[in-house]
Amino acid sequence: MKDLIIIGAGPAGLTASIYGIRSGLDLILVEKLSPGGQVVNTFEVENYPGFIDPIPGWELMSKMEGQARRLGVEIVAGHVKSAEKDEDSSLFKVNFADGTVIEAKSVIAATGSSYRKLDIKGEKEFTGRGVSYCATCDGAFFKDKRVAVIGGGNTALEEAHFLTRFASKIYLIHRRDRFRGVKILQERVLASEKIEPVYDTIPESINGSEKVETISVKNKKSGKESTIPVDGVFVFIGFDPNTDYLPENILNEKKEVIVDKRMKTKIEGLFAAGDLRSESARQIVMAASDGATAALEAYDYIINSGA
Ligand code: NAP
């Protein structure tokens, strides 16, 4: 039996593990794939404090992981299927896909979020054959080629700018007439000769035979439909929280975990930290802060509740 199980090893989970282990808690940090979370797919991070120059996403996360491991955090590979509290014992049972069950006094859910899909014809079919959700991973395949980037938030703007290193032309297709992303990123994108913003436009289908050849779009204002020849489509339209293993009664209508400002859910001893929680600003520094808060609260819960 553990004091604490932290599920998810992105910035929130890794920071929670650093704070938890330094408080003397007997804990494990569980990760489905490899530690680091979404940030490892970010080319460069320039708004995480402590680094004068932009730092590659993978490097920032490998430093966080190294810090946790140096302090003695055990990172366990596993796919969590459910985390339930037994009201009689007040202990949590964390059930893994391979049938393993681990009990703990307290749980921090820090499983972040996954890429939202467009859900249009051709998207699934051409994933890996021209459709991508990661410019850092796949950008180099599009040297001197034409690509479409879908979205108008910070991710779409950052990634469209990153793709100018490779692609000859980038259509930045956004469903409204102004971007959601911050001004500095908008300015960078609009200053690039390679990027052509396509406003008020929604993608309707991604087409081709063996691989992506065109994207069909519709202008929302004029109703005009057109087809743009492209070799790739990068989709950056936000994220959905990874919360399917958690009890329904702690989630809101967007499937985010409802927490108070101490990262407490309404189930005592169960905390949530990072991108999966309600009202998250989805910043690395804030996920880290959530993780620290959740670990301090878990420590208080374990000490004061006699769990
Ligand atoms: P986001 O801010 O939620 O933006 C999603 C974008 O996709 C919006 O422009 C939205 O349009 C569009 N969209 C959503 N569903 C769509 C659909 N079905 N079809 C077409 N377009 C659709 O997501 P994000 O850009 O991935 O950012 C997520 C969070 O991470 C944000 O809080 C962001 O600030 C943060 N982030 C920060 C940084 C940074 O600080 N450097 C970098 C990346 C991300 P509308 O605008 O019309 O809603």
How would you briefly describe this protein structure?
This protein is α/β, with parallel strands linked by helices and 307 residues long. It has helices at residues 11-22, 57-70, 135-138, 154-163, 183-191, 284-305; strands at residues 2-7, 27-31, 44-45, 55-56, 74-77, 80-86, 91-96, 101-109, 113-115, 131-132, 146-150, 169-173, 195-198, 201-208, 212-219, 225-229, 232-235, 239-241, 270-272.
Describe the structure.
It is a single chain. The protein is of the alpha/beta class. It has 2 domains: about 1-115 and about 240-305, FAD/NAD(P)-binding domain (3-Layer(bba) Sandwich); about 130-235, FAD/NAD(P)-binding domain. The protein is built from 6 helices and 19 strands. It has helices at about 10-20, 55-70, 135-140, 155-165, 185-190, 285-305; strands at about 1-5, 25-30, 45, 55, 75, 80-85, 90-95, 100-110, 115, 130, 145-150, 170-175, 195-200, 200-210, 210-220, 225-230, 230-235, 240, 270. Strands 1, 2, 5, 6, 7, 8 and 19 form a 7-stranded mixed beta sheet that branches. It is elongated and about 65 Å long. The relative contact order is 0.19. The mean pLDDT is about 95. NADP nicotinamide-adenine-dinucleotide phosphate (NAP) binds near residues 47 and 236.
